[in-house]
Amino acid sequence: MSNLKQKIIRIIDELITLCYTMNCKDFNVDVKIQEGKELICLKAYVDSVNEETLNNIKKLLNLPRAHELEEYYWNLPGNDLSTNELTLLGIMIDSSSVNYDKESKLLQIELSRLE
């Protein structure tokens, strides 16, 4: 399996871990691989997400991508979600969008990686 595919699998794994940490009962992850770009979209129904947690997720996923560190650190995220794993996700992606609708209880995270 290519390094690129393994990185995408690791990102998906960390998003699923986030869902379980937030006690999601219904979630899915969609991946679209396009020429020169990968899109990873999470939709999760969460009973409640406080503003501090939401802002922390946004902040960590919007760190600048660090290509020079990505090759070294991409395999570090593990099974225990912490700030470090979200930080590592942040340096592996080019852009992110994080939204939570309190009425529908839908958390949406969209990640984009350029090749």
Quickly list its features.
4-stranded antiparallel sheet; single chain; 30% strand; Heat Shock Protein 90; Ribosome-binding factor A; globular; alpha+beta; 115 residues
Could you characterize what this model shows?
- The chain has one domain: Heat Shock Protein 90.
- Helix content is 41%, strand content 30%.
- The chain is built from four helices and four strands, in the order H-E-E-H-H-H-E-E.
- Strands 1-2-4-3 form a four-stranded antiparallel sheet, with helices on one face.
- Strand 3 and strand 4 form a beta hairpin.
- The radius of gyration is 13 Å and the shape is globular.
- This is Ribosome-binding factor A.
SSE blueprint and pairings:
Layout: H1 3-21, E1 26-34, E2 37-45, H2 51-61, H3 67-73, H4 83-92, E3 95-101, E4 106-114
Antiparallel strand pairs: 1-2, 2-4, 3-4
Shape: globular
Q: For the largest sheet, list the strands in their spatial order.
A: 1-2-4-3
- Number of strand segments: 4
- Please identify the structural class as seen in this structure: alpha+beta
CATH topology name, in short, is Heat Shock Protein 90
Proportion of helical residues? 40-55%
As for the number of domains, it is 1
Give the N-to-C terminal Cα separation: 17 Å
* The top level CATH class name: Alpha Beta
Tally of contiguous helical segments: 4
Oligomeric organization of the protein chains:
single chain
Poorly predicted sequence stretches spanning 5 or more consecutive residues = none
Strand content: 25-35%
Task: List the secondary-structure elements in sequence, H or E.
Answer: HEEHHHEE
Protein name: Ribosome-binding factor A
